[in-house]
Amino acid sequence: MAGKRGALIVLEGVDKAGKTTQCHKLVQALQQSGRPAEMMRFPDRTTTIGQLIGAYLENRSELEDHTVHLLFSANRWELVPLMKRKLEQGTTLVVDRYAFSGVAFTSAKPAFSLDWCKQPDIGLPKPDLVMFLQLNPYEAALRGQFGKERYETGVFQGAVQEKFEQLMTDPSINWQVIDASQDIEDVHRGITEHSLKAMNAAQNLPLGELWK
Ligand code: Z5A
Ligand code: MG
């Protein structure tokens, strides 16, 4: 690797925690301070696979549960060459949801084990930092009604939260829990601090492989 690599930074959290808002703000702040940074989001609904996922989430199609899990994973794998290229060029990637959402959402369905759900994502680029935006259901409700997409119900989101909590016990991942009930600027300050630390540490380390 010629220069210093960028960091892979992931934002996770339940519905309406502010992930998308904070990803945009972080990328903007990094760029303004002269650090190359770009945002990505999963699912990426622009690809052929992403369009199948989009139709499923919007209830325009039905897909068998294992099948859609594998499609979400395939949607990450198809973007791995691009992600690696950007990181090697020194661009930090700020990613809105990743494999942790994949595992938490499918394993919240009946009859899916956490372990089975992790398998297809093993070996993806390993994030240097995963920030979990923590928000309780009462605070989330104050940010508006659930939308019309699949999974947007209180009961299911509660089950997803429990699965995220199990994933966060994994010491091989650099998890940071962020109190997402603070105002947008305070959340942003905390996220920026953790990100700068992770970017500093990552630049001299090889990119890892997730769950390996
Ligand atoms: N999914 C899956 O099953 N498997 C997978 O592998 C992956 C995903 C990757 C994709 O949803 C769905 O796919 C998701 C998981 C599943 N299903 N669900 N639920 P998405 O990521 O496209 O969802 P979204 O529409 O972007 O919603 P979101 O991510 O839940 O919201 P958010 O990004 O966390 O929040 P936000 O859009 O930034 O903010 C929400 C509102 O709150 C907005 O009006 C903001 O202005 C406001 N806000 C934000 N921060 C604050 C603070 N601090 N105070 C007050 N108000 C705030
Ligand atoms: Mg979002």
From TrEMBL:
EC number, UniProt record: 2.7.4.9
Keyword NAD: no
A GO-annotated cellular component: mitochondrion
A biological process from GO: dTTP biosynthetic process
Keyword terms of this UniProt record: ATP-binding, Kinase, Nucleotide biosynthesis, Nucleotide-binding, Transferase
Residue span(s) of domain Thymidylate kinase-like: 11-191
Record's catalysed reaction(s): dTMP + ATP = dTDP + ADP
Family as reported in the entry's similarity comment: Belongs to the thymidylate kinase family.
Name of the protein this chain belongs to: Thymidylate kinase
Species of origin: Mola mola (Ocean sunfish)
Lineage, uppermost ranks: Eukaryota, Metazoa, Chordata, Craniata, Vertebrata
